[in-house]
Amino acid sequence: MTAITAHKPKKATSPILSVRDLKVHFSVPGKGLFAPDRKLRAVDGVNFDLYPGETLGVVGESGCGKSTLGRAILQLIPPSSGQVAWLGKDIVGAPHREMQPLRRDLQIIFQDPLASLNPRMTIGEIIAEPLVTHKPELGKDEIKVRVKRMMARVGLLPQMINRYPHEFSGGQCQRIGIARAMILEPKLIVCDEPVSALDVSIQAQIVNLLQELQREFDLSLIFISHDLSIVRHICHRIMVLYLGNVMELADRDSIYAAPRHPYTKALISAVPIPDPEIERNKERIVLTGDLPSPLSPPSGCVFRTRCPFAQDKCATASPTLDRVSETQEVACHFHDSIS
Amino acid sequence: MTTNHILTVENLTARFQTPDGEVAAVNNVNFHLDPGETLGVVGESGSGKTQIFMSIMGLLAKNGTSSGSVRYKDSEILNLPARELNKIRGVSMSMIFQDPMTSLNPYLKISKQMTEVLVEHRGMSEAEALKRAIAMLDRVGIPGAAQRVHMYPHEFSGGMRQRVMIAMALLCDPEVLIADEPTTALDVTVQAQILDLLRDLQKDFNTATVMITHDLGVVAGLCDRVMVMYGGRVVETGSVRDIYYDSHHPYTEGLLKSMPRIDHANEESLFAIPGQPPNLQNLPTGCAYQERCGYVMDRCCAERPVLTVFDQGRASACFREDGQ
Ligand SMILES: Nc1ncnc2c1ncn2[C@@H]1O[C@H](COP(=O)(O)OP(=O)(O)OP(=O)(O)O)[C@@H](O)[C@H]1O
Ligand SMILES: Nc1ncnc2c1ncn2[C@@H]1O[C@H](COP(=O)(O)OP(=O)(O)OP(=O)(O)O)[C@@H](O)[C@H]1O
Ligand code: SF4
Ligand code: SF4
Ligand SMILES: [Mg+2]
Ligand SMILES: [Mg+2]
C-alpha cells in the first residue's frame, strides 16, 4: 500500500484561501411576542490560511459553527464581517457576476448523501449539471464522456448513468456527490461531515477516495467532522471550534501528540479507542455540564463554564489566539501553566 | 434445566413481510445474558441489531413476526400478549431506544411520564413516585432535577434528553437494560459522561446490560462479551479481548482494521472492506460476506457457514479455519 495519508503538501509560497476575522451572526426572534431580535454569534472571528493540496480539519461539538463557517467561506451564507480572500482577492459581498466563474473552483459535499441529490434527476444529469452550467460550450457527447470518466474514477459503474439516486446506497450516493463536486476539477472542496452518515466499512472507502483525488488534482480540502479519529487520518492541520471561536489551530502531529488547549485535550481524551486495554486504562478528562446557549455565551473565555482550569481572569478577558510554536496556536490565558 | 442466566435466547428469528417480499432481518440468533454482564452487539446498519431486541421486547412493527424462544429467568416471554409482557417490559427489562422520541411523549411533562410506571407497577403514591423520579434524574446527573422534572422533552438538550431516557429506563431497577445506540447522536464529550454513568450504574445495581452500537471504541471500553452481526446473523462471538485481539471471522477482522485510530499516526491509506453490505431481501446462496471477503473459497458460495463453537465461549461462522 502506498503512503498517501496526509502527505505533507509542498508549502506553496502563497495560500489559495485566506480568512480574516470572519464573523457570521444570525438574528433570531426574541422570546416574547414583542421582544427584540437576538444575535446568535455562530462564527465569531475566525482566521486561517489554506494552501494548495492541504486539508484543514474543522472539529468541535454540534452547534459550534462548523457548517456555518464552511458555507460562509463559499459565500453560500453572507458573512456579517471579515474577509475571505480567494487567490488574493476578497470575495465577501462580490456580485453574482464575479462569483459565478469562481464557483467552478469552489465546491461542497454534504453529510446526508441522499438528501443532497435531486431525486428527479438521473445520476448522470446530477453529475453533469455543473458542466452544463459552467461549460456550456461543451457538446452533449463530450459531457457524457467526462461524466462517465468521473463515475469510473469515483468507483461508480458508468453504465448506471441513467439510474436515480434512490436506487443507490448511502456510500454510493456520497460517491455521486463527490463526482459532481469533482467534475469541474475544482481547487477547493468543503466537505461537511462527508462520512458521518456512513457505515465504518464504507467510511474507509470514501476517505481513501478523497485522499486519492486530493493527490491527483492537488485539491485543497476543508474537512468538517466531529470524528477526531478520521480527522487525524486525513487532515494536515486542525482547527478546534467552540461556540464560534477558534480554541486551537495546529498542525496534525502537534495537536494529537500535545494538545495545548483544555478543550482540545478533553475532546481528544473522550474519543473511545477500539482496543480494550488501551481504552480502559487511558487517562480521561471528562467535561461537566452542557454546551452553553450560543445566544448568551459566557463572558471572557467562552469555554470557561466547562473548563477545569478556569480562574477569575477567564470571566473578564477573552483570550487571543496566540502562537505557541511554529505549528501551533492556542487561545487560553494559561496555556503555559496547564500543559 | 435451571441456569443463572437472566435472559436466554434460542433460535430467534424475525421476518418482515413487505410488498417486495420477505425480509429475513434476524436469523437463528442464540445468546444469553448473566446478571451484571455487559454484552456488546455490533455490525453494520441493517444487520439486524435493533430487531433482535424489538422481538424480545414484543415491539416488532406490525408487518413483523418472530419465532424461537426467549426466556426471562425461567419463563418463556416471546410473543406473550401485551398484558403479560407489560409486567416485565419497563419493569424488569428496559430498553433505551435509538430514537429518543420512541419512548418520550413530546406532549407530556417528564414528571408525568416517569411517575406513571411507578404508580402502576410499584403501587407508589403520586408523591412517592415523584420523589423517586427526581432522585433518578439526580442520579443520572440532571442538575436542578426537582425543577426540571416538570419540563417537557423538547426543553432538554440532546445529551440531557438521553439522560432522562436512561433515568426512565432505570426507574424500576430493571435487571436487564438494553441500550440501542444510546450515544450515537451525542458529542464525544457528552458520550463520555453517559458511558461513565452506565458503568457506575452497573457497579451500583449489577444490571445486565446490552449495548447496541456501531462504535467499536465504545464496546472496547464498556463490554465484557461481544456479538458481531452481519446480514441478519451472528457471525462471531467472544469475550471483548478475544474479539479485539484474536478475531476469527473475516468481517470482524475487516471492521477492526478499517477503523482509523486517534492514538496512531497512520501514514498509509485506510484498510477498506470492498463492496456494499448485503440486501436482506436478496441474500446470496452461501456466506453473506462472500462478495466482500478476502478469503472466499468455492465452498463459501455454495453452502452457508453456521456459527460453530471452537473454544470456551467463542464461536465463528466461517469455513476458513475448517479448510486449514
Ligand atoms: N439560519 C440560521 N439562523 C439562526 N441560527 C442558525 C442558523 N444556522 C445555524 N444557526 C445556529 O448557528 C450555530 C452554528 O450552527 P452550525 O450548523 O454551523 O453548527 P455545526 O457546528 O455545523 O453543528 P453540527 O455538528 O450539529 O452540524 C448553531 O447554534 C445554530 O443553531
Ligand atoms: N418494519 C419493517 N419492515 C420491513 N423491513 C424492516 C422493518 N424494520 C426493519 N426492517 C429491516 O430489518 C433489517 C434489520 O434492521 P435493524 O433495525 O435491526 O438494523 P440495525 O442493525 O439496528 O441497523 P442500524 O445500525 O441502522 O440501526 C433491515 O434490513 C431493515 O431494513
Ligand atoms: S482561558 Fe481560562 S477558561 Fe479559557 S481555556 Fe484557558 S484556563 Fe480555561
Ligand atoms: S465463509 Fe468464506 S466468504 Fe464467508 S467469511 Fe468465511 S471465508 Fe469469507
Ligand atoms: Mg454542521
Ligand atoms: Mg438499529
Descriptive labels:
heterodimer, A: about 350 residues, alpha/beta, eight-stranded mixed beta sheet, 12 strands, disordered N terminus, B: about 325 residues, four-stranded antiparallel beta sheet, globular, binds adenosine-5'-triphosphate, binds iron/sulfur cluster, binds magnesium ion
Characterise the protein shown here.
The complex is a heterodimer of chains A (339) and B (324). Chain A has helices at residues 66-73, 96-102, 123-134, 140-153, 170-182, 200-217, 228-234, 252-257, 262-270, 276-281, 312-316, 335-338; strands at residues 17-28, 38-50, 55-59, 81-86, 89-90, 106-109, 188-192, 220-224, 237-242, 245-251, 322-325, 328-330. By secondary structure, chain A is of the alpha/beta class. In chain A, strands 6-7-8-3-9-10-12-11 form an eight-stranded mixed sheet, with helices on both faces. Chain A has a four-stranded antiparallel sheet with strand order 2-1-4-5. Chain A is globular. Chain B is of the alpha/beta class. Chain B has helices at 49-56, 82-85, 110-122, 126-139, 145-148, 158-170, 188-205, 216-222, 240-245, 250-257, 298-302, 320-323, and strands at 7-18, 21-33, 38-42, 64-72, 75-76, 93-96, 176-180, 208-212, 225-230, 233-239, 308-311, 314-316. In chain B, strands 6-7-8-3-9-10-12-11 form an eight-stranded mixed sheet, with helices on both faces. In chain B, β4 (64-72) and β5 form a beta hairpin. Chain B starts with 6 loop residues before the first strand and ends with a helix. The model of chain B has no long low-confidence stretch (mean pLDDT 91). Chains A and B meet through α5, α6, α7, α9 and α10 of A and α6, α7, α8, α9 and α10 of B. The complex binds adenosine-5'-triphosphate (ATP) (2 copies), iron/sulfur cluster (2 copies) and magnesium ion (2 copies). One iron/sulfur cluster is lined by residues 250, 287, 289-290, 293, 295-297, 300, 305, 318-320 of chain B. One magnesium ion (MG) is lined by residues 49-50, 98, 180 of chain B.
